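Dear support,

We are seeing what looks like truncated structure output for some complexes. This example has two components. We would appreciate it if you could run it in full and send us the complete token output so we can diff it against ours.
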Amino acid sequence: MEEVIDAILVRIPKRQGTAPFDVRPRVEDFLPSTKEREGACGDKPVLISVFDDNKTTFHQCLTIRGIAVHEGFAAFQLEAKSIRNIPTGDGRKLFVVYDPLPEPACRLEGADGHCGIGDLARHPGQPKAVVRDICSRLVDLAQPYGFFKAALK
Amino acid sequence: MYLLGQYVPEPPALVRSLSEMAETTAKEFDVDSLRAAFRSKQDYERHANAVIAGVGRLREDARHRSLDLESALREIKTYEREARKAADEWKRYAEAGDDFIQKATRFRMPPEHVEFAQEFRDGSASLRDIQTRVWREYLECRQELESLRKARLAEYLNEWDSLLDSISSDFRPIIDSAWRAAKGLRLWAPEASLTGEGFLMVWDRGAHHVQVEVYPNGTFDWFYRDRSEEGYKFGEGLPLGEFRVSIAPLAKVLRRG
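Here is the complete output from our reference environment:
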């Protein structure tokens, strides 16, 4: 899988919980969903879904995720190079890879920008705290969508 | 400083080094740098005005709920602390200048020594006043953000009760028990979600991050991370009866912020 070294990634989580401040990223925004956990099989790690801002526009992200523009949703941006500094508890660090979508989503415009942040699996012998730590660090890195573009102006 | 950097400019280099100098015991006056600062008074004025304008925009965004209050509070405390230290250092220099003028006059030192001391005192007093404005701006902003946070958490407590009502009846008593214990430790209603395995509650304040997940079998996990340190602490598979004992120390650090 091709690694993503330096890009801005967009994460659009499906929220079902609650929190006092909608704008703020949450731990649940980065916990692997059931679908994301089931996506890991064989040698494939547990990846959480994100998009490369250079290859997929924001509206394309919404289309691929099946979210209508008028629906309420949260969206965050993270820097791939910062993600790659987060430890995973076994001497390794998180990585970001391009993650091809299955049919028919792979035919949608912008689908080639789909990536995954991994590995968010809990390996045998590891406590759940490893994944909790990773998610808390991703919360720290995440900024509301549009933040980096505004900051660069 | 991701978030505040979007609103306010970096402080001038001398302000940063003043707040650092305030922490050291060997406090030497770098006369040339200070003289350069006195001559650049308008740069400090411009910076102060940019801070006041930027902080005004940040407060407006906070009132309209388009700001991550926790991150803003965490960052603004650092800016406030550095601005205050720098203001205190200018005040110290101004007082030292005053002291030197008195001695120079008493001991009839050459006029150029007295003039230097006056330049030193007046320049420092001027920059002290400018820096104090910056510090007070951050202070008042922080107070307003804390007030907005308190108000929002009070509103959220009502929404929290509706969330609990939507949870299945088997699991509900266990969650109620954990929440009662958390309230007993004076914790506020947390970020919460069903994870597929349990019910996750998250509290975040300042450098402190706590996760507690309770399970239908009556056990719970806790996780604590201090952002200012490496590593984390945790406990897993604990009986609910140990909730108060395990979470009390974490609740204490969270409340201190």
